[in-house]
Amino acid sequence: MKNIIAMLILLGFLFFSYNVVKDFKFGHDFISAKTDKTKISKDRSELAGKHYLENNRKENNSANVVTSIVVSYRGFDTLGEVTVLFLAATGLGVILSRRKEEEEEESSTQDDEELSLIVKTAARILFPMIFLFGIYVFIHGHLTPGGGFQGGTIIATAYLMMFLSYSDFHINHSVFKAIESLSGITFITIGLVGLFTAGVFLKLNLISMGTFNTLFSAGLIPVVYIIVGFKVGSELTAVVDSYRENW
Length: 247
What we know:
single chain; 247 residues; mainly alpha; 9 helices
């Protein structure tokens, strides 16, 4: 039964992917050009890059062109990247959960030793600052360099510091799994809404574009990056904690 369900999901995904790309006219403007393949490929890249730079403000109203490319023009590809991260985190979690405990544990004074008060105090002070900086990075991804992946990684780094500083520091995996699942479902839902309403996955003109170069601008781009930031942060933090507990 599980194999049948998996095959149906795979066939549905293939059918969906085919319908997304079947009408794309890849290289249409250069098919008739009497040039070699290298020249055609170069022309395609120059055409795409020129379009992004010239039309980004009109189409996305984002001050960061790179963000527009990742979340808007290449939104479907970003879905693939998020999926790869999810599968990697899930696979690692499964491997770690099945790891058998050693019958005879070697005595390790390093694990039993408490870190100095200076290290612990510094970790407590720096943790909220690093966490807040991670949030700042993905909230302002449409204005400055950064975004959801970078901000989520920074948040996971803050938790890693706490894991290293306190041997008894743990997270609630149920909460982090809920955050990760909710973020992923919301991301896909927004993408599908754009696909069915505008014909483009993750179409970002569903809400007001706001005022250029301000926090409330670029339509859904900052919203998507906030979702990605929480998803990446929760996944990486859970992976690090699972690795620490099962290794």
